[in-house]
Amino acid sequence: MYGLTRATLTLIGAGVAGFLIWLGSTIAGDSPSGGEFWAFAGLAAAAGLVMAISQLLGGWTKWGWPRVSGSVFLLGFLPTLIVGGWIVAAGEPSGYWLGDHVRSWSGDIGVDGAVHGLLRGWTALAFGIGLVFGLTFDTTGPRVKRGTVAAGATQPVDGDGKTGDQRRVHIREGTPEPEAAPRVGEPAKK
Hints:
Blueprint: H1 2-28, H2 34-58, E1 66-68, H3 70-90, H4 97-109, H5 112-118, H6 122-134, E2 137-139, H7 164-173
Helix pairs in contact: 1-2, 2-6, 3-4, 3-6
């Protein structure tokens, strides 16, 4: 069932992403203004985000809530946003403030050749920015208190021979847990 759910949501995500890219291309046309350019860039980034979310929802079998991974955000998304956003901004039509300045700054720091070469794929870079942002989200399983075991479990938790269910009985009844017997080779507690 998991594979069917994920496959269906991937197909839906691809359809929505394709629609957003088509919509952006119709808004921008052949020679877009600054606003039309940024509308297309935003819709391309949204298409990438939709693809990542389709995978998040399709894999939501852990029954946990989505969370943001701080390390993926800092080490994955922020550099992608800076470098990819720089190139996308350089693709803004001539005569607009941001695009003119980014192209000028690219020449000043000697990366204008690389920026110019990558400009052909600015739409894919905008898509990638949205995709990487979506990949900063993940789901976790339900949170279980440390030292307890999910219902029905029979494995000891801390190596003292007691299951999480046995510990809960002592807590509910308000009686202290008895001391665990020493393990083989360990000295007895005094």
